[in-house]
Structures are given as structure tokens and as C-alpha cells.
Amino acid sequence: MARRRRNKSQTKWIILGIALVLLVGFGLLKNNGLQPPPQEAGYQVYQNPMFDFSIEYPKEWEIRKETQVFENGDAIAFRLSGPTQKENTELTDGAQVVVSKPFIINTDLAAWVKEYFSNQSEFSQNTINGRSFEKIYNCSGVGCMTYYYTLKNSQVFGVAVFAEGEDKMVYENAIVYMLKSLKFTDAENGSISKDEAVTKVKAQPEVADYLKRVPNGLVLVNGEEDNAYMIQVYEFKNDHTATFNWYNVNKTTGAVEKEF
Which H helix or E strand runs over 174? Predict the structure, then answer.
């Protein structure tokens, strides 16, 4: 029996149908998350189970465990050397991100950083992923670095970052992404303690100034909501309570909001 031959029109529609199926299938795979988001391409996750934090870093950066940037010790460091960087010398061309081992201080964080660093340093506050950081830009004989300090379960964690060279802007973009990817396990599980919440409120500039002016001032947890501590800043004056302000501290993120 002779075969029926398809005409050109039938063949054209068959090819178009196959192409459409392939395009739809590719789109479904992409939407199901099998394609990595563009901003995550080239990054991988470092996890530190000892100190309960994780951070993403560019794959081409090397991991270093022998650094001593922080006085109390480094938990981990990530580094990329630029084309003009000489071996076995201080980093002058490239980028570096160092996370400290946690340590304990005997005062509030804002006061501590100003005592620890020189008056020539630049001080500010930053919020990254809902977590408050004290930011310090400090220059010394070996160059300038930016430091970030935050509290986690009454312990201080520090992050030191450096970027210099012809590709400085590229390095800084990577550093910003790394800082935003930094996650602390306990904080994500909503374990901000009352002591840590009080310390965060004491670190607010206006509260630190109030406590200097009012040596008998108190900062205490005076109530709780589902996901926040209610903290009162006040003093006992003439047999009554004189409230300076109320603050809400998010139990999950540590974010501080003042009431008035």
C-alpha cells in the first residue's frame, strides 16, 4: 500500500506545535525554581555550626581560617586578591570580608565601639535584614576598613570589610550582597533575649544621651506582645515615674521602634 504524503502545510504546523511544547516546558522548569536567580549565580553558602551563622560568598573568593583581624579572634574570612596584589603582604588590591568570633562586653554596644575606636573614626548605625549594626569607618597605617557590630544573645559579632583597587566597585557590590546574606540561626527562630532587647534600646543615640544626662535612668522590659518586648526608659523623680520614652523590640529581628 502506498504511503500518504504530508503536504508542506501539515509539516509546517507539526514543527510549530513541537516548538511551542518545548517553549512551554522550558518556561515551566524555569518557574519551578530549577534556574537559579541571577543575583545568586556565582555564590555559595558558608555555614558555621559552632557560632550559628551562615553567609553567602562569591565562588572565586578563597576561604581563610588563619587571619587575625579581630582582637578576640576571627571565625572565618573570605578574600580575593587583585591583579597588582603582591604575595605575603598586606592587602592593598582586592577585597576581604571577615566575621569575628563572638565576645561579651560590659556596656552597651554603641558606647563600646566609641571607646574601642579612635575619635577620628566615623560612627553610624545601619539596619541590615532587620538587624541593627553599629558601623565604624576606621583608617590606620595599613589602610581603611569598615566594621559592623551587632548583638546576638548578649554576645557581640563583628564583620570587617575591605575593598580597594581598580575593581573596587565590583568588590563593594559583592560585599553588600554578602552582608545582606548574613544570617544568625537563633535570631531567625525568634530567640532575641530580654537582655539583648534592653541592650539594643540602650544603644539608641537618644537613649545613650539620656542615660548620660540622667545617671539614675532605667531601661527595663515592662511588658510583652506576641512578637515584641515593650521597654520603658524612665527615672523615679519626686516620688513618681518620669518616662523618657517607650520602645518596642522585635523578638525575631531585633528591630527597635520608639513610640514617640
Answer: helix 168-181
Domain-wise residue ranges, the chain: 43-188, 194-258
* Residue 193 exposed, middle or buried by CB count within 10 Å (0-12, 13-18, 19+): middle
- pLDDT band of 35, cuts 50, 70, 90: very low
Q: Length of the chain, please?
A: 260
pLDDT at residue 30, rounded to an integer: 43
Residue with cell 553599629: 134
Residues 6+ apart with CB under 8 A from 185: 52, 53, 54
Q: Any idea which architecture 43-188 has in CATH?
A: 3-Layer(aba) Sandwich (3.40)
Least confident of 36-45, 116-125, 161-170, 243-252: 36-45
Residue 258 near residue 246, CB atoms below 8 Å: yes
